[in-house]
Design a protein that fits this description.
Elements: E1 9-15, H1 22-27, H2 31-34, E2 37-44, H3 51-59, E3 67-71, H4 77-91, E4 96-101, H5 111-119, E5 125-129, H6 136-139, H7 144-161, E6 173-176, H8 177-181, H9 194-204, E7 209-213, H10 227-245, H11 269-278, E8 284-288, H12 294-301, E9 305-310, H13 317-320, E10 323-326, E11 341-347, H14 356-366, E12 367-378, H15 383-390, H16 412-421, E13 424-432, H17 444-459, H18 461-464, E14 467-474, E15 478-481, E16 484-487, H19 488-493
Parallel strand pairs: 1-2, 1-4, 2-3, 5-7, 8-9, 8-11, 9-10, 11-12
Antiparallel strand pairs: 4-6, 5-6, 12-14, 13-14, 15-16
Helix pairs in contact: 7-10
Length: 509
């Protein structure tokens, strides 16, 4: 049995004005580890000194690993320099890349320990932590204000991200290059909080992180980080991520999930519709915009037979519903769905269509005469969107009321007019509270604000209701007059003449 080839290990050295420290740092790479290094990539970020010359000089000495030395003609920033380095690592076919600073702040002696967990397949990223050993950071010369700031920020970031890292702010990192390919790091900032954003991306992608203890070293190197600005940026990043999970803001450096993340009892429109469906007898359900089938799966568990429709096929959706049809609802209902459905669910769907009235009219054609449509739409008259417009800060979000894919906006009045024009009677209309406060976690502040939001929604739904959930039924197709069944639509379409019996036009429908 052939053993798998050894991974190609690369060392990415980011350097800026590091002429006096670069060669000393590289000399500290363990002799017995150098033969395992496929390439060293030294990226000089447009230094004002002779950093590039120092790198070239070191690379030309005997018994050095293959070394590529590059100098940017323009300063890319700390994050921008890493982006260039990781792109180069991918281009040159490396399997593992270790980030090493050219100022010697992080110990090259620990390079073997940094790559070992990835080599063993235990994780996709390894972070060196100066906080794993009690008192180690202070003994190594970390100033008290930096130590305290590091601890406070790390604790806050862990709480908001649900992680358990001992340090978020070490620049000693090792990554699987294959894992980096899966992350949109090209969208990250070029500033010093690049390291925070990449941690968030790794966590969001469900990748594994392992920490190892590293020594702390503070010498006479120049620090280019503005501490207060850095703290503001990393806090902004984690809050931006938390908001993005709820659909607020665009957050381009976090991938937008293809599947709707449905959770029972979260107060969302889908959760409200599910509760309504629990009260109805099992039947045939048409689930428009079924996404990955999480909602359909719960309906199936209640005894319903669900036909799901969506314009993308999320892996596994066919196993969660009785039938799946791939179709773009902008072009109308596909013929192959059939008819005679007892219920049609359109949760957060019609606002994505340019002509929702047309789709709703088609839905009536496949619905049983006594069937129901349950749909939900965001409330554009909610205080959040009103405030954005009034402040002149209108823009789109990832999801929610201002979803970047919405083509139509609805208020309570416009929703009523739309469903009436499409041929429906409104049975019930309810409102859901806003999900803003859940970004604060499950603490007492979040619970209090959430309760206040629900109360205000009941008092004034047009201002505080985040979404409307409507139950509809087609206009009555038949009525009974003097013991006879009369087709109402036919009655309304008649052209009456004076010769018709008196009182015919006076039938109430």
């Amino acid at each position: 049995m052939n053993e798998s080839p050894a991974p190609r290990i690369g060392i990415l050295v980011v350097a800026y004005n590091a002429e006096s420290t670069l060669e000393k740092t590289l000399d500290r790479i363990p002799e017995d580890f150098r033969s395992r290094i496929a390439e060293i990539l030294i990226l000089d970020d447009a230094s004002h000194d002779e950093t590039f010359t120092a790198g070239c000089r070191w690379s030309q000495l005997e018994d050095r690993p293959k070394t590529v030395v590059m100098r940017h003609t323009k300063n890319l920033g700390y994050g921008g320099n890493q982006k260039a380095g990781y792109a180069l690592a991918m281009e040159r076919g490396l399997d593992i890349v270790v980030l090493l600073h050219g100022d010697g702040q992080y110990a090259p002696e620990l390079l073997p320990d940094m790559v070992a967990p990835i080599e063993r397949g235990e994780c996709e990223a390894v972070f060196g932590s100066r906080m794993m050993k009690n008192g180690g950071a202070r003994k190594g010369g970390m100033p008290m204000y930096k130590w305290l700031g590091n601890r406070i920020l790390t604790r806050l970031e862990n709480k908001l991200l649900g992680s358990k890292l001992t340090e978020f702010h070490s620049g000693y990192r090792a990554y699987s290059v294959d894992a980096l390919r899966k992350l949109p790091i090209d969208r990250n900032t070029d500033e010093f909080d690049f390291d925070t954003q990449i941690i968030v991306q790794v966590i969001d992608a469900g990748m594994r992180i392992k920490e190892i203890p590293i020594p702390t070293y503070y010498g006479d190197e120049i620090c280019y980080v503005n501490g207060m600005r850095y703290a503001k940026d990393v806090i902004k990043d984690v809050f931006e991520y938390r908001l993005a999970l709820k659909g607020f803001g665009t957050c381009p450096w976090i991938p937008k999930p293809a599947e709707y993340a449905f959770k029972e009892g979260d107060g969302s429109s889908h959760a409200v519709i599910l509760e309504q469906m629990r009260k109805l007898p099992p039947g045939r359900v048409l689930d428009l915009g079924c996404s990955g089938g999480l909602f359909a799966e719960r309906l199936e568990a209640l005894g319903h037979k669900v036909t799901g429709v969506d314009y993308i096929e999320v892996p596994g959706v066919r196993e969660k519903c009785s039938r799946f049809v791939l179709a773009n609802l902008e072009a109308g209902l596909p013929d192959e769905i059939g008819d005679e459905f007892d219920y049609v669910v359109a949760g957060d769907v019609i606002e994505h269509l340019s002509r929702p009235e047309q789709l709703l009219a088609q839905v009536a054609e496949v619905l049983r005469p006594d069937g129901q449509v349950l749909l939900s739409v965001p409330n554009f008259s909610h205080w959040y969107s009103r405030l954005r417009v009034a402040a002149g800060a209108f823009d789109y979000d990832r999801r929610g009321i201002l979803d970047e894919t919405h083509l139509r906006f609805f208020t309570r009045g416009s929703l009523r007019r739309t469903v009436k024009a499409a041929g429906y009677d409104l049975i019930a209309l309810t409102s859901t509270g806003a999900p803003f406060w859940s970004v604060l976690g499950g603490g007492i502040v979040a619970r209090t604000l959430g309760a206040a939001s629900r109360l205000l929604t009941r008092i004034r739904p047009t201002l505080f209701g985040y979404q409307y959930v409507a139950s509809l039924t087609p206009h009555a197709a038949q009525t009974i007059v003097a013991g006879e069944h009369i087709d109402v639509q036919e009655l309304l379409n008649r052209q009456y003449s004076p010769a018709e019996p008196a009182g015919t036009a006076a039938v109430r429908v």
